[in-house]
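Pipeline run #58 for the internal structure catalog. This entry was flagged by the ingest filter as a single-chain record with no existing model, so it goes straight to prediction. Upstream metadata was stripped on purpose; only the residue string is passed forward. Reviewer on rotation: M.T. Logging verbosity set to normal.
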Amino acid sequence: MRIALKTFLFVDLDDTLFQTPIKVPNATDLEPVAYLKSGDPISYTTAKQRALFEMLNRDMTLIPTTARNHDALSRVDLPFASYSIIDFGGVVLNPDGSVDAVWADIMRADMAQALAGLHAAMHIIDDYAAGAGLKARARLVEDCGTPFYIVVKDPDKQAGNLEQIEREAVAPWLACAGIGAAGIGAGVGKDFCVHRNANNLAILPNTLNKARAVAYVRQKLEAEHGEIITFGMGDSASDARFMASCDYTIIPKGTQLAARTVELL
């Protein structure tokens, strides 16, 4: 007897389903799919990505699982029709686009506990960058009324500058060395983690992660449909944990996660 199970794909967006043109310099088949607030296109799909999305969307229900916030997700021109996980797992959107109130309450309480540590990390990063003559500064990212994490970008897009900040300022703090003025943030760093990819250096509370939100949504889906099959797809090392929680994983070629896993074989 054949049993048909509902299949769901938890899928990262940027550098997984689409990317900026600089990531595919030789492509001649690009079509815009994500836009800036001005309306100008910023990210594009290749012909292969469009064919892949059509195949996946035909046979699975796709659930965006992204660092993008609510506004940035609204500027992605792809036909998602189920739940969405945004802000590194900080916000879950219902299929009708509304914010899941139960998850919002959970994360609001967790982020309130993390806020002092986020401010400490910002202080340490900004002090170090200023002293080292670097232009990068930390910014607190909030969405749906809740602060979630901090991000640092280098205005000159020099990866080495972010590497230096991570190595000299962030890593000692995560190890509880408490560097910075008067040892600000000492002992707090153990409750946080770092994610760096391209020109983004993010410091996240450990309680903020995609895998945790995927588990929550999966529980809701199982309550609705019974036993289900789940796939996880992403490009970044930070995606690995939520992907590993799924039944199967898909890793795009040439990505950070591929370089650290399958391309090493």
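catalog note: Residues 177-184 have pLDDT under 50 and may be disordered.
catalog note: The two ends are 39 Å apart (CA to CA).
status: ready for reviewer M.T.
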